[in-house]
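User: I'm writing a short methods note and want a consistent example. For DNA/RNA non-specific endonuclease, I'll paste the sequence; you return only the structure tokens, no commentary, since I'll be parsing the reply automatically.
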Amino acid sequence: MARRRQKKHRFLLATFITFFRVGKKYPRISVLTLLPLIGGYSYEVMLARPDMAFQGVPQTQVWYQPLTWSRVFRNDGFMVGYSDIRGNPLWVIYQVTAIKDNATPHKRPQTFSTDWRSLTRISHQDYTRSGFDRGHMAPNYAISRLYGKQAQLDTFLMTNITPQKSNLNQKVWQRLEAVEVDYFTKLHRRVWVITGPVFSNPLNRLKSSWKVEIPDAFYKIYAAETSSGIKMLAFLVPQTVRGNEPLTDFIVSVDTIEELTGLDFFHELDDPLEDKLEAAINPKPWKLNSVARLPSRY
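Assistant:
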């Protein structure tokens, strides 16, 4: 928490200095233009984004490594850290609760949509005949039923999509998405999910589009606040899965995912607690063995 306060103080100080310097030279311009811009950006960084994250918005560990840079896009029900260089979301974060029996189902869109915020304008057609599925990071099923139709449409933006082999997307990944909303939410009232791709060298891009890099694996991190403290569970799933493996085969530590991705998760936790939680591998609070072999829907 001390680090969080220090970051906020530094940000506010830098904002004040910038506004003061420009305002001193151009007082009218500063009032008419800079104040709304600074106010909007301050709201985005200090309030809106943290409210959609758990213990800090994921960030790069090494600021000068461009392959870990991302631009943050807030959508209905989830938030994306998107890499225009890689043509992939590097992380996606959302929160799930138990879906009510009377939750409204929404018809699945026929196609995926280009996100106007992206620089390379990746489209539905970029994946056509690529040999890969258009893999959702924020899932259509849970997001649409928990957050509504607009949220569902946002999950079909190409900035939420990454190349996944069919056995991964339609089997293991689908099983994880079902377990998180149908089972984990019965154990823990609210579950935070952070998910995204993992890459390795050399760079490998879709044969149908040079704009999209192909991941080697994918991660999911679950976090929940309980009466006995914060519980975490992490998975690392390679593209080469058959699809029927038990989910217990893919358990790793959060530290492992941070090492592979170059990202820093949960950085607003006190350092000793963060170190302990991210190093641990403890599936017991999630009763994973009872659901590890559930079949896929497809």
